[in-house]
User: What shape does this take?
Amino acid sequence: MLALAIVSALLLVIDLNSRLLDPTRALLATIVSPIYYIAESPYDVSRGVGEAFASRTTLQEENEQLKRRVLELSQVSQQFVSLRDENARLRELLGSRRRLGAEVLVAELIGVIPAPNTLQVEIDKGSQSGVYVGQAVIDADGLFGQVVEVSAFASRVMLVADASHAVPVQVTRNDFRSIAAGTGRLDALELEYVPITADIVEGDVLVSSGLGGRFPRGYPVGVVTRVVVDPTVPFAQVSARPLAALDRTRHVLLVFEVKQDPPPAPAVDDAQAPTPAEAAP
Amino acid sequence: MNPFNGGCVIITSLVAAMILAVVHLPETAPQWLGWLRPGWILLVVFYWVMALPHRFGMISAWVTGLLVDVLYADPLGVNGFCLAALTFVTWSFYERFRMYSVAQQCVVVFVMVLSVEGVRMVVQSLARDGGFSWGIFLPALMSTLAWPLVAGVLGSVRRQFQVD
Assistant: This one.
């Protein structure tokens, strides 16, 4: 008993203070991840049955909606191409480096970590798909979180609203920079170290600033919901609501940053650049 | 029956407990229902140590605990220690526990789950922000209520497959 207690304490100290045990965790997680798949399977079956028996009219309506949505998005993406090229030319004129492109990989949630004091989920892509620790995860509306543990066929994602998570952000209106820290509640982020004189108001949109090098820049993170300025404390209390649907979404996107600079041609096709997703077997 | 078959039953019951421990409710169910989750793994380990102390020892409990650490995203070693300690205590008193009525066993389960949750909370407060919360009484209470069910089901499984 004593020996096991000592070994446990050693493991605990090492795991809390370093990343030395990450390979061990990954191995154990590979053994354990099927349990998440099994626990999720009843939902998969019920969804499958529901889709198989969906009525013709429902499907037609959904099809119509999706077609409209594709049209709208293709219009936006046409503009995006010309704006991207213009942006690249302007950045060249300014002598600054061209923004790097990004590739995404769709992943599905297979479980929620059952602990009340942490906000983490399990997704169905792992190191076999090229997922790595620290990778940014987004959903259709905004930044979702980051990968904190990878096993062979699954990985764990910490949500942006987790109490031990923080992401560097900036306000789109005036590029004011801050750090959005999670609160442990799904519907709230807290901006840290905002001076009371800072120009920030309710409704400001926060996007990831890319400082710190972990998250790619420009993904929406949240909307400011409340600004409390109390002259007796040095910092303003700024709350924001995460834009990603943290408690509803089923599909998320893993963002792979394209490592090498794309060739300096006027129109760069992101699809040409190899990505870890495609490189992986 | 041969010893390997008995091992299969024990491992299957542990895997079932792990699945119950992580299975999530449908999105339409209210959030607070998730808090009322009994410590299935603790109950199953407690049952096997009490029923078959020569089959399920501290090393098995510790290895199970390592897997639970990864399952719960806890720091490595916490649940290993907790399950090994639970096994140690149960192992020391298993003859007495077997003689207890179900109500008395429920009290034992309450104390054990509460202590384990307490240790987990202390370690988690070291790892992340957080402090004392009365929330640890909920799993203890639910485990107490779930114990007669677990003991009944595992008892009939044990007799069915003649694990000993």
The interface with chain B takes residues 1, 4-5, 7-12, 14-16, 21, 24-25, 28-29, 31-32, 35-36, 38-39, 43, 111-118, 120, 149, 156, 163-164, 184, 247-248 of chain A (CB under 8 Å). The helical segments of chain A are 2-17, 22-52, 56-94, 276-279.
